[in-house]
Amino acid sequence: MNNKRTVQKGFTLIELMIVVAIIGILSAFAIPAYQNYTMKAHASEMLSASSAMKMSLGICLVNGETNCTSGNGGVPGAQDLGDFTVSAVAGVSGAATTIQAVIDAGQTKGRLVEGDTVTITPALTTAGVTWDITCVNGGTQTATEADWCPVN
Question: Residue 1, SS3?
Answer without folding.
Answer: coil
